[in-house]
Specification:
Bound molecules: D-xylitol-5-phosphate, zinc ion
Largest sheet: 8 strands, parallel
Shape: globular
Structural class: alpha/beta
Number of domains: 1
Strand order of the largest sheet: 1-8-7-6-5-4-3-2
Radius of gyration: 16 Å
Length: about 240
């Protein structure tokens, strides 16, 4: 079922994945309905533990509540120091994909394997200062590479210039392997920064602030419009 949902993500060359971190938490369902109405297929859930990053956000309880009100593909981005402790809880909550950070103290490849063994899609994310090459040992297990273009922890930050270069590196790594791993970019995505990220090879643009401030549907349409013609040949996965 999870795989089918991802395979269905083919209407647009680049997917917009709204990050609920910037949504109105007092009426999440309403905001999710707007995201659905705008034609998005993915919801991005930012999970923070106040340890790996300085902020604390949502956990499996909220993920489960969200699952009850939507069929959207749910991607959980775990910015937490001990993801292995919570994999089962997130799997039980009904998310489709779990992304962990390469920089955790534990062996991230082992955690990726555990995510796969739970029947979920698996992603790895890297902070702005982490080299793309460190993910190589996990390549054969991965469904997603998530390049952070801000320091993880908070929404509404500025895209770090030069992040495009890391996206390009990840894209060539994936294409060289002839793999269909999705490359996502997360942080500071706006109609100004999205085109360069898409041109560099990102096919999933995660965006919070720019979507949930104001008219959600119009904001998503504007963002989609900004990458309608990224000037990059569609990656092999499309
Ligand atoms: C930051 C999160 C992002 C964040 C993106 O640590 O991982 O998903 O919500 O938000 P914007 O688009 O506001 O930078
Ligand atoms: Zn995120």
């Amino acid at each position: 079922m999870n795989t089918d949902k991802q395979e269905g993500l083919d209407n647009y060359q680049v997917q917009i994945a709204p990050s609920l971190l910037s949504a109105d938490f007092t009426c999440l369902k309403d905001d999710i309905r707007q995201v659905e109405a705008a034609g998005c297929r993915i919801l991005h859930l930012d999970v923070m533990d106040g340890h790996f990053v300085p902020n604390i956000t949502i956990g499996p309880v909220i993920a489960r509540a969200i699952r009850r009100v939507t069929d959207l593909y749910l991607g959980a981005h775990l910015m937490i120091e001990e993801p292995a402790r919570y994999l089962q809880a997130f799997a039980d909550s009904g998310v489709d994909e779990i992304t962990i950070h390469q920089e955790i103290e534990a062996d991230f490849v082992e955690v990726i394997k555990e995510i796969k063994s739970l029947g979920l899609r698996a992603g790895v994310s890297i902070r702005p200062k982490t080299e793309v090459s460190v993910i190589k040992p996990a390549l054969r297990y991965l469904d997603l590479i998530l390049i952070m273009s801000v320091e993880p922890g908070f929404g509404g930050q500025q895209f770090i210039p030069g992040s495009e270069e890391k996206i390009r590196t990840a894209r060539s790594l994936v294409d060289r392997e002839n793999s269909d791993i999705i490359i996502a970019v997360d942080g500071g995505i706006t109609i100004e920064t999205a085109p360069a990220a898409a041109r560099a090879g990102a096919t999933e643009l995660i965006a919070g602030n720019v979507i949930f401030e104001g008219d959600i549907i119009k904001n998503i349409e504007a963002l989609r419009e900004s990458v309608a013609d990224p000037g990059y040949p569609p990656p092999k996965s499309f």
